[in-house]
Design brief:
Blueprint lengths: L16 E7 L2 E7 L7 H11 L5 E7 L5 E4 L2 H20 L7 E7 L23 E2 L10 E6 L6 H6 L10 E9 L4 E7 L4 E9 L4 H11 L13 E7 L2 E7 L4 E2 L8 H20 L12 E3 L5 E3 L6 H10 L3 E2 L4 H4 L6 H17 L14 E2 L5 H5 L12 H10 L10 H6 L1 H6 L4 H23 L1
Parallel strand pairs: 1-5
Antiparallel strand pairs: 1-2, 3-4, 3-5, 6-7, 7-11, 8-9, 9-10, 10-12, 11-12, 13-14, 14-15, 16-17
Helix pairs in contact: 5-8, 5-13, 8-10
The structure holds adenosine-5'-triphosphate (ATP) and magnesium ion.
Length: about 450
């Protein structure tokens, strides 16, 4: 049952809030259990903990028209909180979930204040050093919970931003984001973590033993800590469904975007290659590289999802959904052994599709999803791989795709060669703004088209 909890409408100053610290390397969310006890210095220390390289002396927040207001004292902090409570109340009255309080650290030249008051941000206990694995002794209620604190870039961050466990009752489902070969993905709100999640729900008719096996195979996800890989928050079984909770990406997946310009695709490719290189370094093959498993957000981040860490989960889904994935390398389609090079092929075919806005084999009509009858994919095994038209794309891009889609796996670039490819080095400039602006513009276009459609 989908429930959007709109009870408990008004916010009190004793109610926990989430403060989102906007840093150059990304957003850091902190749960503040008792905001009325929070003082300016505590917050400044928390900011310095997440931005140790900067000398932060103040921070800013945005008012309703987007003007930045500076906070340098306890008085100004109180004014900010009071403004935020009003905004939260308004959002709730309009049936919306309150956004976190966003603050923008400001770097100054003077040396920092020491932590004389002690950090008060997030007082939720965090046993077992950031990760809690709750496995009921008995599986009689058929509910199996495995959860973890939020993973962030440093151990310090983990301490500050640690979160409780995720279980089914804490999740309020909102809207359906999409449906794939095996599951349905929902946008949802995690009440304790006070954050929006994407929850993939997959019906699986399997024994409790297999459920346990899947849960233990998924544990590797806790080790994944990369800005190019979707953050995993936890998974649980309820009856015959597994729910996998991950970070929500507000731009969605790349398969729903129209033709993507090369300078944007270049930046996206850099993140995808970095994400894969990271997975490979953990000895994980992605096995399902395709545009719908590349997610973007309005901050310009690109992250990979749905990599096959659990053989048992992949096998259990495959029993229900029959077909062969059209992005698979020829050696996989023909049932041969495969390795990292098969992921590299899938990168090539995915980026070719994104550049052309059509699947590169015109004889293969992918109507819904990427699973096809095996015979229809035989052309990928038999024919020379397609090549990007040289008059429409740069030489570097054409070469990159051609190399990734070499028929012989060994001839495709190895991880180091991928990172060193001129197409990747050219766009490896850390410019997230390009992707961010493109995502925002596409979302805006989509919204106005939907609005026109309604008229
Ligand atoms: P497959 O099941 O083979 O992976 P798929 O990727 O198309 O196919 P799902 O993984 O079920 O299907 O995802 C369905 C859709 O949900 C995606 O296409 C994407 O638009 C959306 N989605 C998935 N995960 C997220 C997320 N973390 N944040 C935002 N949207 C997401
Ligand atoms: Mg997917």
């Amino acid at each position: 049952m989908l429930v959007l909890d709109l009870n408990n409408i008004f916010v009190m100053d004793t109610e926990a809030i989430v403060i989102r610290i906007k840093t150059p390397s990304g957003d850091m969310d902190s749960s503040v259990d008792c905001p009325s006890l929070l003082n300016f210095n505590d917050l400044l220390v928390a900011i310095r903990d997440v931005m140790p390289e900067a000398t932060v002396t103040a921070f800013e927040y945005e008012d309703e028209v987007g003007d930045r207001i500076t906070v340098r004292s306890d008085e100004e902090l109180k004014a900010m909180l009071s403004y935020y409570y009003n905004t939260m109340n308004e959002q709730r009255m309009n049936g919306l979930l309150p956004d976190p309080l966003q603050i923008f650290p400001r770097a100054g030249k003077t040396p920092g204040i020491r932590n004389i008051h002690g950090l008060k941000v997030n007082t939720r206990p965090n046993p077992a050093n950031d990760c809690t694995h709750t496995v009921p002794d008995s599986m009689t209620n058929n509910s199996y919970v495995l959860s973890c604190s939020l993973k962030k870039s440093s151990a310090e961050l983990k301490r500050i931003l640690s979160n409780g466990q995720i279980n089914a009752l804490d999740i309020h489902y909102q809207e359906q984001l999409g449906h794939g070969n095996g599951g349905t993905v929902y946008k949802a709100y995690h009440v304790h973590g006070k954050r929006v999640l994407a929850v993939k729900v997959i019906p699986l008719d399997i024994t409790v033993e297999l459920q346990k096996q899947i849960m233990s195979e998924l544990e590797i996800l806790y080790k994944c800590d990369s800005p190019y890989i979707i953050t995993f928050f936890g998974a649980f079984f309820v009856e015959n469904r597994i729910s996998i909770c991950t970070e929500f990406m507000d731009g969605g997946s790349l398969d729903v975007f129209k033709r993507i310009p090369e300078h944007v695709l270049g930046r996206i490719a850099v993140s995808v290659v970095k994400g894969l290189t990271y997975l490979w370094s953990l000895k994980i093959l992605h096995r399902d590289v395709k545009p719908s498993n590349m997610l973007v957000n309005t901050r310009g981040q690109v992250k990979l999802c749905d990599f096959g860490v659990s053989t048992q989960l992949v096998n259990s889904i495959a029993k229900t959904y029959v077909g062969t994935n059209a992005y698979m390398a020829p050696e996989r389609i023909s049932g041969e052994q495969y390795g990292i090079h098969a992921d590299v092929w899938s990168v090539g075919i995915s980026f070719m599709e994104l550049a052309l806005d059509m699947f590169p084999y015109p004889q293969i009509q992918k109507n819904q999803g990427s699973l096809m009858p095996l015979q229809l994919l035989q052309c990928i095994v038999d024919e020379d791989p397609p090549v990007l038209p040289v008059d429409q794309f740069s030489e570097k891009f054409v070469h990159f795709i051609t190399q990734c889609m070499r028929r012989q796996p060994k001839e495709r670039p190895a991880p180091n060669n991928l990172m060193d490819h001129p197409f990747i080095t050219q766009y490896n400039d850390g410019n997230t703004e390009v992707v961010s602006m493109w995502v925002c513009r596409c979302l805006e276009d989509r919204r106005s088209q939907q609005a026109q459609g309604r008229v």
